[in-house]
Amino acid sequence: MYKATHVATKTRVALKVLGPGFLASAKARRYFEREADILSGLQHPYIVSIRDSGIAAGHYYYAMEYIEGLELVEYVSSHALSVREIITLFAKICDATTYAHQHGVIHRDLKPSNILVDKRGDPHILDFGLAKTAGMLGDALSVISVSGEIKGTLAYMSPEQASGQPSLIDVRTDVYSLGVILYQLLTCQFPYDVSGTAAQILSNIERVEPVRPRDRDRKCDSEVEAIILKSLEKKPEERYQSAAELWDDLRRWLAGEPVIAKSISSIYIIRKLAAKHAYASAVLILLCVIVIGFTSASLSMGIRYRRQHSQLENTQTKLEEAADLRLGLTQQALFIHMLDLWHRDYTEDATVIGHTFPPGSREAVAFDLMSRLEGPDQANSPLWLTIKERDPQFHDFLRAECSRKQGNRQEALGYYRRLMAATPQEGRHELLLLRANLFIIQESSGKD
Fold first, then answer.
1. What is the CA radius of gyration of the chain?
2. Which of 109, 127, 340, 349 is catalytic?
């Protein structure tokens, strides 16, 4: 690549020349000529334009618009752009990618080093050497440029490229690469580990779920996170189906409108929470299985009772009690899971669960109390008094948990023991008593 002057227009151009070592390769010439043909058919302000091409002194060449600027990551870093400014700039890249897709061109090698940003802050996509055009046959598995360079490209590949599935490569492949780029711009990291051998990197792209952007940088809000994660879905059918859809969601975010990706974020978060807190989730699942099994047994018993007309009233009572017991156990299991997240300072994850409790329930009141950070030293606050009046044992349990949170284990032990000494109410305290008993045993053995 050379900086030159185009004689006919007296303008500076970037001159790309096919090196002598490649002239004998028909494949190299085919890639070179194809890139020139693709660029000549794309006229967009954010895609580098071609000015001339041909053969001079036996050398294949083409002259492109000369862009004086910085590579994308360097530009964002050196200008210390805000999240909104990064999204605004990135939306322009999506605009250009959408234009290319609409003209039958899939870039297949989108990465920051292939995007220059000029002094006005406008991006320019270049290097279409690996681009695939509509109706193009063959070359679908190629991920290595004419020069044999592969380093730096792997990290931005899509799972379908990494797994060598050419039939799945389409515009959604570029959407994935755009998702990786946006993730990197906002967090200064990759969604997963891209160090190690090429085989390890490709395996991570295929199988490892991305780390949530907000776990990397809290400046990234939940809607932007949802947009990124939708772009990075491993299955193409679960991503944005085009760069245009991604571009539209970014424009909605910039305009303060609801984004499409946000509608799937709650399901996504719950799914990821289960993977993130594997042990706690396994305990919760086990408890739910017990609850379901207990409920099934109760219903079966109820059916037998219902067959006896003389015991119909008694049957209904038992079924209602079973339903109440099931609800009580389920509420306790969810509340204990939320407490585990709260103790580990996973505040946002605990909040997701806290908002599921019915308004006015003891768990909802306790969640409100925890959100306000009212500890046992504020025992006479309205929230604490409300809990104590409605359920003294739950009050003792919650005070023990708050004492643990504040590091006062002896005080927590005292509340737990008082809870254990009281008479439990069926369906309201079973799991709380189990947790209290485990803590007492751990303290007795000197373990946390």
1. 30
2. 109
